[in-house]
């Protein structure tokens, strides 16, 4: 290859690959520029896809699949003495839920459909557990995790807020996939 042609070729290689596709001079260059342009596009698309799904990945990592901050009134705190519970529906009328005022004075709320076969779960005051009477499933009152019986998954947690003596549902966390 003459020196002039070599020079011409190097100059030619420095141009943008996509531009080179229109005036390439041989099959080798054609393959090279096509491959390079394809790789650039593929890498760019991968990065763009990764960035666009990042918020969902972070949410999934935190286990925070739902969080509508709309407050839904449940009950006045004075109407829910320690060691008692009240049923309500959240986030929709089709989702039964249970709010418990524990003997220690904490407020806990979960969707009350058992994660085994959907029977309603009750607050068992004496032993402070959540009980599903259908197949003797038990859940921990403090976190909604199954502790005995057939249920394998925890109950969805309902976040609470108390404002001016009224207890509100403020969001829901489904903690399993
Ligand atoms: S439905 Fe609750 S233990 Fe079976």
UniProtKB/TrEMBL annotation:
Entry's EC annotation: 1.20.9.1
Keywords assigned: 2Fe-2S, Disulfide bond, Iron, Iron-sulfur, Metal-binding, Oxidoreductase
InterPro entries (alphabetical): Rieske_2Fe-2S (IPR017941), Rieske_2Fe-2S_sf (IPR036922), Rieske_Fe-S_prot (IPR014349), TAT_signal (IPR006311)
One Pfam family linked to the record: Rieske
GO MF annotations, alphabetized: 2 iron, 2 sulfur cluster binding; arsenate reductase (azurin) activity; metal ion binding; monooxygenase activity; oxidoreductase activity, acting on paired donors, with incorporation or reduction of molecular oxygen
Superkingdom as given in the UniProt entry: Bacteria
Name of the protein: Arsenite oxidase subunit AioB
Species of origin: Halalkalibacter krulwichiae
Organism taxonomic ancestry: Bacteria, Bacillati, Bacillota, Bacilli, Bacillales
Gene: aioB
């Amino acid at each position: 290859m003459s020196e002039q042609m070599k020079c011409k070729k190097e100059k030619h290689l420095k141009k943008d690959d996509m531009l080179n596709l229109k005036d390439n001079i041989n099959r080798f260059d054609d393959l090279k520029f096509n491959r390079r342009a394809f790789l650039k596009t593929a890498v760019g698309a991968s990065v763009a896809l990764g960035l666009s799904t990042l918020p969902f990945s972070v949410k999934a990592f935190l286990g925070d699949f739902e969080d509508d901050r709309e407050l839904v009134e449940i009950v006045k705190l004075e109407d829910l003495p320690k060691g008692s519970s009240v049923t309500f529906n959240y986030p929709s009328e089709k989702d039964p839920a249970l709010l418990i005022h524990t003997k220690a004075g904490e407020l806990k709320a979960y969707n009350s459909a058992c994660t085994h076969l959907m029977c309603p779960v009750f607050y068992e005051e004496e032993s402070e557990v959540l009980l599903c009477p259908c197949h003797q499933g038990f859940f921990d009152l403090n976190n909604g995790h199954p502790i005995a019986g057939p249920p394998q998954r925890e109950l969805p947690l309902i976040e609470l807020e108390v404002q001016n003596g009224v207890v509100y549902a403020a969001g829901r966390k489904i903690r399993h996939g």
